[in-house]
Write a structure and sequence with these properties.
OB fold (Dihydrolipoamide Acetyltransferase, E2P), 5-stranded antiparallel beta sheet, mainly beta, 2 helices
């Protein structure tokens, strides 16, 4: 299956916290980072998610924000992955920012050209990808 989500991160379920309707699934990535997905309890059951199960986390580039400096700033977004900008492709309206998270793992963000300019983003710069747990879709091999 081909998927349009630019970010396809393979990982392993670390933990699952079930609520009344939604569950919080923590996924360990190969570089040691973790991301959190907020999905329905029904999806946890249908995907047969358990600790240690391999999953793929899908995150559309348009739901990822880029922050140039988050020192001493607290955010409600659970997913904050620090890395180094490896490439920026500027379009007429949007820029595609590629972030190297280390250990061969990367993440793409689609932000406005204006935002990229205001943040003075450039290759080699440290940055943080920020996205909410609800923006993460989990998939498993059939």
């Amino acid at each position: 299956m081909q998927i349009s989500a630019r970010n396809q991160l393979s990982g392993t379920v670390k933990s699952i916290s079930n609520g009344a309707v939604n569950s919080e699934v923590v996924v360990s990535l190969p570089n040691g980072s973790e991301i959190v997905a907020s999905i329905t309890c029904e999806s946890v059951k249908n995907l047969e998610l358990v600790e240690g199960k391999p999953v793929v986390a899908l995150v559309k580039a348009g739901t990822v924000l880029i922050a140039a400096d988050l020192h001493n700033i607290k955010l409600s977004a659970r997913n904050q992955l620090a890395g180094t900008i490896s490439h920026i492709e500027r379009g007429a309206v949007h820029s595609l920012v590629e972030l190297d998270l280390g250990n061969g793992l990367g993440l793409s963000a689609s932000i406005t050209v204006k935002s990229a300019e205001e943040l003075n983003l450039c290759a080699g710069q440290k940055a943080t990808a920020v996205f909410k747990a609800g923006a993460v879709i989990l998939g498993v091999a059939a």
